[in-house]
Amino acid sequence: MRQKVLVIGAGIGGLTSGALLAKHGMEVLVLEASSEFGGSAGKFKRKSYLFPVGATLGMGLEENGIHERIFRYLGKPFPLPPLETVMEMVHPEATYVFMKDRNCHVDGIIRHFPEHEKSIRNFYRELYKTASIIRTLMDPLPVLPPTTIAEWANLFRSVRLQHIRLLPLFNQTLGQRLKHHHLDKLTPFCTMLDGLLIDSMQTGNKHVSYLLAAVALDIYHEGAYYVPGGLYQFADLMAKSIQENGGVLKKRRTVTKLEYSEGIWLATDQRGNTYEATDVVLNVPIHQLPVILEPNMIDKLKKPLRNGLKTPTWTTLTLYMAIDESILDAPLPPFRQISTGSGDSLTEGEHFFVSASRPGDSLRAPDGFQTVTVSTHSQAQLWNTKEQYDARREILTERMLSAISQVIPHFREAIVHLETGAPKGWERYTGRPNGYVGGFPQTLDNALFNSISHRSGLPGVYVCGDHIFPGGGTIGVAASGLHVARSISGSRLV
């Protein structure tokens, strides 16, 4: 049988691997359970309003950014101007502005803490230098943790003399570096950083891997983008590329069983249709694997992956709203964080990300209206019973709307449409058990060499997505999809 690739799940990771392999000349079939491509970066419509499901802020489109490289390889460039002002970060004590220009950004932060100028400048100088060294690894993009001789060889080929400077920082947290710079007691500053980290790294400064935190805090300066319509554009572009290169995509196909016999994988969907493949890409939440695979196959998975199956992550409550601009004093900016809590309390509606369509973005809303998504982290165990579920949804919705109204006068009066995306909704529409989103917190226990490899441990089966190295966000899942495509094709591709 010639090499045939079956991609299960058309999120950004699965579409990345499928598009790259189809472009490489391989036979590719993509099965998607829902009626939309993109997974957590997908979309849905309500009347004349279009809402992004989850992810909203575009990243990786700068020159040699991960998405820019992939789209260029596919022959589908996606040029956009970067945001010079990335977002406002509204905290109880101050409103900070994240600027693309690194010097302007640091100067703006220092204006809030002038007595700590030297320490803050030294901290950012170290952080930006660390990130710049790590970025030199983005071109070869070695796999972590390496599990084959080829992956170890690629890692060693990627290492340069300057990377030795990273070794003392390898097992440090961002919190330890803040302490080194005498900033760990500067609570408002640390909380501002935590607001950025909880959205990208799923944890705060005390526990996050410093090396990953450095990249996460620096990458906005490389380029952050407003994507007209939303990030579903990435998914649609790659789906189109798969079709143009002979691949096939099928929506509303939920794989219920995956079996292996004599070197061939056989997938069965909810309709009883079967599909044969030599290689399988699982772009599904790893907590779904026990539903798809027999227990004897689960036992053969690599240990970190098996452990991950039993590990919960954050869930979320998301508000999807449409607002009448004419009632507000000014249109909403594209991106804004609002925090009412501090320290470890940046969850449960005390910290959330607000994304709004730009005025005139007719793909998302009619003229004079904006669509808005608001999301907060929540602990899955707080949604266990129907009573808890209903109460938690009401509490968090009111908590976030109240906080927004403190920042934006007349916001409630401007709402013309409101619905919630609670954990069961996420489970139903994106296939994420318990509504788990975002992947694992990038702590020292979960990151880098302790992360989950894209190699499942089963012959010809690969995993990608936000639980797999290098982690969440469209950049992370695209990188995991690229690693899968490289392993299946035996080629560097991009």
TrEMBL record:
InterPro entries from the UniProt entry: Amino_oxidase, CrtISO-like, FAD/NAD-bd_sf
UniProt-listed GO biological process terms: carotenoid metabolic process
Transmembrane segment boundaries: none
Domain Amine oxidase span(s) in chain numbering: 12-488
UniProt superkingdom: Bacteria
Cross-referenced Gene3D superfamilies: FAD/NAD(P)-binding domain
Pfam family, one: Amino_oxidase
A molecular-function term among this protein's GO annotations: oxidoreductase activity
Alphabetized PANTHER family for the sequence: PROLYCOPENE ISOMERASE, CHLOROPLASTIC (PTHR46313:SF3), PTHR46313
Protein name: C-3',4' desaturase CrtD
Species this protein is from: Planomicrobium soli
